[in-house]
Design a protein that fits this description.
Structural class of chain B: mainly alpha
Oligomer: heterodimer
Low-confidence stretches of chain B: 290-296
Largest sheet of chain B: 2 strands, antiparallel
Distance between the termini of chain B: 57 Å
Radius of gyration of chain B: 19 Å
Structural class of chain A: alpha/beta
Number of domains of chain B: 1
Radius of gyration of chain A: 18 Å
Mean pLDDT of chain A: 84
Low-confidence stretches of chain A: 1-33
Order of helices and strands of chain B: HHHHEEHHHHHHH
Number of strands of chain A: 10
Strand order of the largest sheet of chain A: 6-7-8-3-9-10
Number of helices of chain A: 11
Largest interface: A-B, 39 and 26 residues
Mean pLDDT of chain B: 89
Number of strands of chain B: 2
C-alpha cells in the first residue's frame, strides 16, 4: 500500500480498511485528534419537512483533519443533513463542534465556531462583486470592512483561486458556473473555518473545472482543514477522502467495507 | 402664470418625499420581502405627533421630534416582534410576502383609525424647522421647508449609498436582499436585519413627515396617499432597486407638479396614474427587474 504524506493511498489502489489508522500514525493533525474532541459529532439527528422525514437517526463522527465524503442517491437527505449540521435547518438530536453542543437551527453560531457550509448551487449574491462575496465571508468573525479586507483569512481566500483575480470587480451573476463555484469556496474559506462542509461542489461543472475545484479541496485538507464533502457521484471525492458515510432514505451509516469503498473509488458500484 | 422654476422646485420637494418613502419601501423589501404599505402612515404619525406636542402641550420642537421618533421606533419594533416575526418564523406553508402584504395594509388602516380618533379630521402641521419668509432667489419663490426636505433627501440618499458601499453591515443588508438563504450561510441573522430595517425606515418616514408637514399639512389619512405613491415608485424599480426607486419618486413628484401647473390641479392624480399605467402597458418590464443577472 502506497500512502501519501497524509496517509492516503495513490490512485485507485485503495485499501480502505486501515487507511484511517495509518493516517493517525503518519499525520500530525490526526494524531492530535486523539487528545482533542472530534471536529464534528452528529448524534441521532432527525430532520423533517412537515410530516415528511428527510433525515432519520443520522450519526457520524468527523475528526479534525479528516476528509469524509457523504454519498448517496439524489433526494435521500444528504443536503438536508448538511444544512441541519450547519444550522440552516431545524433538527432534533445533537451536534457537537469541537466538544461544544451546537444549538439547533443557529447558522451564525456555527460560523462563529468555525464550521462553514459551501451550499449546493452556490447561493451567491448575483449583484454583488467577487470581492464583496469574499468580504462577506468574513462576516462570521468581524463587522469591520477594514478588518475583513486586511485579514489573513481574506488573503488566503483570495489566493485560493488566483484565476478569479481578474474578475474581482465583476458581479457574481455574470460569472461562469466554474467561477461561481470557486467563488463559493473562497467565500466559505474567508470565514476562517476549521470545518468546511461542501455540498456537491462539481454539480454541472466541466471536467477540467471539477479537477481544479478538487485540487483546491485537497490543498485545504492538506493544510489541516476538516472537510465533510457531499457527492452524489463519489469516485472523485473518494480519491481525496479518508472515510465515507452513506445516506440512504434518510438514514446515515458509515461505510466500513474496504471492498465497497475501493470499488466506488474506482468509479463503480452502487451508491 | 406659474414659473417653470417654481414648479420644478415644488416637484422636487414632493418628489424628495416620494423618493425617501420609495427608498424605505424598496430597502425593506430587499432585506425581507415585505412591502410596507404603512410607510406613509409613519410619516403622518411623525407630522401629527410633533404638531400635537408642540401646539397642545407647548413642548419644544426638538424635544417633540425626538419623543415622536422614539415612539415610532418602539412601535415599529413591537410590531415586528409580535406580527412580522411570527409571519416569518411560522412553519406553516404560506407565502410570507403575501401574508406580510396584508399585515402592513392592516397596520396602515389601524394607524389611520387611531389617528382619526385622536386628531379628528382637522389639518395639523408641525412648526417649520427653518422658519422665516419664503426665499426669493433669481426670481423664484423657494420655501425654506422645501430646501430642508431636498437637502435631507440628498444627505439620506448619499448616506445610504455610502453605508451599502463602505461598511460590512451595509453589504450584509445588500446580501439579505440578494439572497436570503445565501446570507444565512455566511452567518447573517436576517431577522435582526429585517427588524432593524423596519424600525429605521419607519423612523426615517416619520422624520420626513415632520419636515413635510409645514408645506402640505397633514390629516389622519394623508399617510396612505403618500405611502401608496412611495410603493408605486418602488414598484417601478421592481421593488429591489433603491437607487432607481429614488429616481422614480423624484420623477413622480415632478410629473405631479407639471400636471398640476399646466393641465389641471383637480385631475392631477388621475392624469399621473393614467401616465403610469400607459408606461406599464408600453414597457411592462419596468415593473420587474428585467435585466437582473441570475446565479444558477
Amino acid at each position: 500500500m502506497i500512502l501519501d504524506e497524509r496517509g492516503r493511498t495513490a490512485g485507485n489502489e485503495v485499501q480502505w480498511k486501515n487507511v484511517r489508522e495509518a493516517q493517525r500514525e503518519v499525520s500530525e493533525p490526526s494524531s492530535v485528534s486523539t487528545q482533542q474532541p472530534p471536529a464534528l459529532v452528529v448524534s441521532n439527528v432527525h430532520v423533517t419537512y412537515g410530516a415528511f422525514v428527510a433525515v432519520e437517526e443520522a450519526n457520524l463522527t468527523v475528526n479534525e483533519g479528516d476528509c469524509i465524503v457523504m454519498i448517496g442517491p439524489n433526494g435521500n437527505g444528504k443536503s438536508t443533513l448538511a444544512m441541519a449540521i450547519a444550522g440552516l435547518l431545524q433538527r432534533e438530536g445533537t451536534v457537537h463542534v469541537f466538544g461544544e453542543v451546537a444549538p439547533p437551527g443557529n447558522a451564525p453560531w456555527m460560523v462563529r465556531h468555525r464550521v462553514s457550509l459551501v451550499p449546493e448551487r452556490r447561493q451567491l449574491f448575483p449583484h454583488l462583486s467577487v470581492i464583496d462575496h469574499i468580504t462577506l465571508g468574513c462576516y462570521a468573525w468581524t463587522r469591520s470592512l477594514r478588518a475583513a479586507r486586511t485579514s489573513h483569512a481574506f488573503e488566503e481566500a483570495v489566493e485560493l483561486f488566483p484565476e478569479l483575480k481578474p474578475c474581482h470587480k465583476q458581479l457574481a451573476g455574470t460569472l461562469s458556473g466554474g467561477q461561481q463555484q470557486m467563488l463559493a469556496l473562497a467565500r466559505g474559506l474567508s470565514a476562517n473555518p476549521r470545518v468546511l462542509i461542501i455540498d456537491e461542489p462539481c454539480l454541472g461543472l466541466a471536467e477540467v473545472v471539477s479537477q481544479r475545484v478538487y485540487a483546491a479541496l485537497k490543498q485545504l485538507n492538506n493544510q489541516g482543514r476538516t472537510i465533510l464533502l457531499i457527492e452524489e457521484k463519489p469516485w472523485r471525492a473518494l480519491q481525496i477522502s479518508n472515510g465515507a458515510v452513506r445516506v440512504k432514505r434518510g438514514v446515515a451509516e458509515e461505510i466500513t467495507s474496504a471492498a465497497e469503498l475501493s470499488m466506488m473509488a474506482a468509479g463503480g458500484g452502487e451508491q | 402664470m406659474i414659473k417653470l422654476g417654481d414648479l420644478v422646485f415644488a416637484g422636487l420637494t414632493n418628489g424628495s418625499i416620494y423618493a425617501i418613502l420609495a427608498l424605505c419601501v424598496s430597502v425593506l423589501f430587499r432585506v425581507s420581502g415585505i412591502i410596507n404599505f404603512a410607510v406613509g402612515d409613519f410619516a403622518m404619525v411623525g407630522a401629527m405627533g410633533a404638531a400635537f406636542f408642540v401646539q397642545n402641550d407647548g413642548w419644544n420642537l426638538a424635544l417633540a421630534i425626538v419623543v415622536v421618533l422614539i415612539f415610532i421606533g418602539l412601535f415599529a419594533y413591537v410590531f415586528d416582534l409580535t406580527v412580522l416575526r411570527a409571519a416569518f418564523e411560522s412553519r406553516r406553508g404560506y407565502d410570507k410576502v403575501t401574508a406580510t402584504f396584508f399585515y402592513t395594509l392592516a397596520l396602515s388602516f389601524f394607524i389611520e383609525g387611531v389617528a382619526f380618533h385622536m386628531f379628528g379630521t382637522e389639518v395639523h402641521a408641525a412648526p417649520e424647522l427653518w422658519s422665516g419668509y419664503t426665499l426669493t432667489i433669481a426670481g423664484l419663490h423657494i420655501q425654506r421647508a422645501g430646501v430642508i426636505i431636498i437637502g435631507a433627501a440628498v444627505v439620506t440618499g448619499v448616506g445610504f449609498a455610502a453605508f451599502i458601499q463602505l461598511s460590512l453591515v451595509g453589504k450584509a443588508v445588500a446580501a439579505c436582499g440578494e439572497n436570503a438563504f445565501g446570507a444565512r450561510v455566511v452567518g447573517i441573522r436576517q431577522g435582526s436585519y429585517r427588524r432593524g430595517t423596519f424600525v429605521a425606515m419607519s423612523v426615517l418616514a416619520g422624520l420626513f413627515g415632520i419636515m413635510l408637514s409645514p408645506v402640505t399639512g397633514f390629516v389622519y389619512n394623508s399617510g396612505s396617499d403618500l405611502g401608496w405613491t412611495g410603493v408605486v415608485a418602488a414598484a417601478f424599480a421592481g421593488f429591489t432597486r433603491p437607487g432607481r426607486a429614488v429616481l422614480m419618486g423624484i420623477a413622480i413628484g415632478l410629473a405631479e407638479a407639471f400636471i398640476g401647473g399646466y393641465i389641471s390641479t383637480e385631475y392631477q392624480e388621475a392624469f399621473l396614474y393614467l401616465g403610469l399605467v400607459l408606461i406599464i402597458l408600453c414597457y411592462p418590464g419596468v415593473l420587474g427587474a428585467g435585466n437582473l443577472v441570475e446565479v444558477d
